[in-house]
Amino acid sequence: MVFMVQERVVKTDIGEVVLGTGSTSPRGSGPNRNAAFYTYYRCPNGEIQYRPSDQAHRAMYREEGCESLTQYGSFEWNWISCKNPFNQLFLQGGAKEFPLFQVIEYGWHKNPPKIYNELGSLITVVFPQLEGQDIPDFSCPYCTHGVYTQEGYDNHLKGAHKDELDNERLAEAISKGLSAQQRPRVGKAVVE
Ligand SMILES: [Zn+2]
User: Are the C-beta atoms of residues 8 and 120 closer than 8 Å to each other?
Assistant: First the structure.
């Protein structure tokens, strides 16, 4: 006997999207008791995260000051949904929940996610919080890792490119030292 996965998987340019996530099991017969379900939370710093949705986790996150966004439901954590864990939120119009810094951190202000809606049409996720915002570009000069807020950019450079920064500082110090040595002096006047 062949068991089929009941979910409908569609390919997008950002990966595979699963529609109708929920209680489908690999056997296609009733909810999978062992499946982990995730839901969305707003953390105290405003960030939106996806985390386990069971009672125990909910209580724990509440203790941490996280608000669970139950209006967007929960989704089964599987090899498909883990690739695009925010899709369920997007499909239900939850893009507006993200704080601006998170949108920028993910580069969504430049490359908004494209997802298939329930009618099978490819749509671009719109972030209303970006309207009227003039966002400076903090692309990394050393890698293609992404774009950042000023703070994220500073942290990224310090964390990921310490060697490059050290080398640049060294080169700068050497060139300063050289130009100081080579600077000719005429009497008391310094010729630049
Ligand atoms: Zn980088």
Answer: no
